[in-house]
Amino acid sequence: MNTRRLSALTALALTAALGVSACTTPEESAAPVTVTESAAPAGEYESADLLRRLIEEEKVAHDLYLAFDEMYGARVFGNITGAEVSHQDQVLAVMEDKGVEDPRLAEPGQFVDPELQTLYDDFLEQGSANLPAAYQVGVDFEVMDIAGLEEELAQAPESDTDLTGLLEYLIKGSKNHLEAFQRQLDR
Predict the structure, then answer these.
(1) Which of 75, 146, 147, 154 lies 20 to 30 A from 177 at CA?
(2) What residue ranges of the chain have pLDDT lower than 50?
């Protein structure tokens, strides 16, 4: 698991829950990554770990936006929820090609990774306050997601075109979602 990304996600969730607008940079929250599984080469293990993380992160976004769509009926949440399904499908396709098991739980709002569970719970609580707060959660989540994806892309081996292509696709989608949520806040 990429500890730097995990630390950045946790820091942002805590920042959002406290209502503070500043967050740490990945360098400030970085911790060394250690891989203990010896059955797979390090690069393959990290790629598999990243893919499992990515699909659960896309599920966090999907489940948050679905919950907000049900709470507020704002069209932007329904539209982006559909896009998050496509993102999960794209990650799953790469996972299947690489023989990586899908860790997702079927129940909305439930996650294998306890850090992602906390992130979801904190963002759901924040966005449940009112519609503008839910839009702000969308902005905060997408900003966090873009930063993490860009960090992963910078570290991904250029030779793994499936992974780099997937990361570029997810970054583009997150930037579109960020713009959509920001437009709602600016109204």
Answers:
(1) 154
(2) 1-42, 45
